[in-house]
Amino acid sequence: VVAGSGDDAAITVPGGATVTSVDMAIEGVHFRRETAPPDAIGHKALAAALSDLAAMGAVAGEAYVQLGVPDAVGEDECLQIAGGMAAVARAHGVAVLGGDLSRAPVLILAVTVVGHAPSPAELVRRSGARAGDAVCVTGRLGGAAAGLQLLERPELADGLDRALADDLRARQLRPEPRLTAGRVLAAAGATAMIDLSDGLAADARHIAECGGVRIEIESGAVPIAAGVEEVARAAGMDALHLAAGGGEDYELLVALPADAQEGAAAALSSEGLELSRVGRVATGEGVAILDESGSEIDVGGFDHLRDRRSQARPS
Amino acid sequence: VVAGSGDDAAITVPGGATVTSVDMAIEGVHFRRETAPPDAIGHKALAAALSDLAAMGAVAGEAYVQLGVPDAVGEDECLQIAGGMAAVARAHGVAVLGGDLSRAPVLILAVTVVGHAPSPAELVRRSGARAGDAVCVTGRLGGAAAGLQLLERPELADGLDRALADDLRARQLRPEPRLTAGRVLAAAGATAMIDLSDGLAADARHIAECGGVRIEIESGAVPIAAGVEEVARAAGMDALHLAAGGGEDYELLVALPADAQEGAAAALSSEGLELSRVGRVATGEGVAILDESGSEIDVGGFDHLRDRRSQARPS
After folding, report:
1. Residue A270, Cβ neighbours under 10 Å: how many?
2. Number of Cβ pairs closer than 8 Å across A and B?
């Protein structure tokens, strides 16, 4: 980094390959100020952007932030938003080099992140999955979707352990980008990787489409986060639907050659991270989530969640 | 460029120095859909971002676009917005590598642009102006502000030549980033450079502050675009106020060693571009716009313009 903010543009002298991703969070579409504290809004916007770098196996480098601020949001709240971003940046060694501040009708955060790798060959694309690969996920799923349920319907937490409810809300409000896991999995031979922002089913479809392969997920193998079963029961929903259809967990979905899975799991374990095999890559196309008898399960169709997604398309 | 959109992030292998800038355009703040056609909205958002690269003397490389689209904007209009961006990208050899599409309450365009130079030493910062340098601008000023007047108050065009009125509106709606001029001025020895987005007075202040110097502008030397006098007269305004206070012309303001000015002007002239000396760098601080008698003129204070600016701060 040669020059940061304060000039027309920031100057860097990157070596090797550069990875760039952009992500936008808009009030009323991706978050509500009624349920998300300012620091969490900043935290999540940067974390979600960095998650795309994690999914490439890149080292996070720089971030550029554009903030649109409505009159109703005061300087104090702006500082808290910036503080949430700064905490994530610090935790992952990211330099916030530039930005842009503007009036706006609602709160808008547009984040650009830049990552690095010694060469393009060290990065993992979405397209490399091959029939026979194991399909794995980091961590446990459904926490972010269950947390969203708790934020939108606080009465669902009534019978729930308080610490568990707090954890679930934190999974929704303050996700952690899996940057270390991404690099470990890239080094372990990952053939394709994506972060779980849209949900297991939808994101597996991207891997299937980009690779020209079919992905089969065994529903019984999906690791479900603690408390998700309880929230699903209280909400009259299915835990698998929250875990595979809910999105925003920002864990990584990865395809690995079958003989690389064990080594990858061991390497992640030494970083305190879990890796679970959830299925396999097959020839064909599409994604199937299968129950114990091998029948397909439909996990899509949560319109109230879908409306909160960053991938939402205009009608 | 190794991989463009369609993956989690775009991959590039830049050589030398990289220059990154972000810029956001928000409906109702930076433009109105009632007066700006969709292709112009796309054109201006990318052009304004590239203008920051021009002000560094960089070669434009890549762009990343985040689009927030309200329900009222259909697919056709989105394609026209994209078309306006694509035309600017093509004209300047820019690769649009990635993007993000989201629902939004109003139309939002957040643009990230990346430029390149062989090394940081070849780039021009805001901070290098030295007492004795000449202060120059490319092109002619006030066209964008006069065009905005014509768009907001169409009756002002009544007595005006139609082609001239069209030119002024185009200066507001479809500005051209001065990328070639920026590189020529960098090569000619520019010590400090900035693009005129906020207006001559405000942008000169950035150069003065970053360099720890004073900038004196001679009001009579400011090159005023054709038609600006007429629009100013019809609007009951002062042409100098439009030219020095209006902003959005996206011309370049540059400080040059006095003996480099002639060579720079000649090099620009061979590209069909004008360079006008408008003042000088002195010791001290701040910016003064001086009339023929050496008295200071205040050109600030256009609240209706100020409200449209990208640098607007939240109240």
Report:
1. 8
2. 227
